[in-house]
Structures are given as structure tokens and as C-alpha cells.
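A favour between colleagues. Tell me how you read the following sequence-structure pair.

===
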Amino acid sequence: MKLKVFLDPGAKMPTKAHPKDAGFDLCALNSVIIPPGEGRSIETGVHMIIPEGYGGLLVSKSGLNVNNDLTSTGLIDADYTGAIKVKLYNQGN
């Protein structure tokens, strides 16, 4: 399935780190510090046209969880056309 992707100024196209990866990596539009025990919404500047009947799933990669104690989960509905925001939580000390 091909998705239409639009980028705000300064945003980076989602990429796969490895050809066999299941998902795409998103980059933050700006640098963000998330203090321990807190969460922050991260702007990506990425807009995707998701086909009706489908959704986009945001999940933090295992490396973020294991190495940095950062977690995230979210569902993007097909009718959402705004820029994707990722809510990351710092579960560390």
C-alpha cells in the first residue's frame, strides 16, 4: 500500500532504518527534553493520507523502551489529516 505523505517546512520524511523493518521512524521537528516521570507531545510535521478503513499505529521502538525508558502508543484514524504528534513518556529516573 502506498501512502501520500506531506511535510511541513523542516520536517523529515519517515524512513526505515533497515529494509526488513515493519514500521517507519519519525523524527521530531524540534529538539525536546522529557524530564523523568513526565510526558511531552512531539511535533513531527508529517501529514499522511491514510485510506478509509485503515489506521496508523504509533508505537515506541524497543530500543527506546529498553535503552531510554521512553514509551509511546497512539492510533491515527483515517480522517485525521493534521500533522502527526507523538506523545512520549519518560518512565526513567
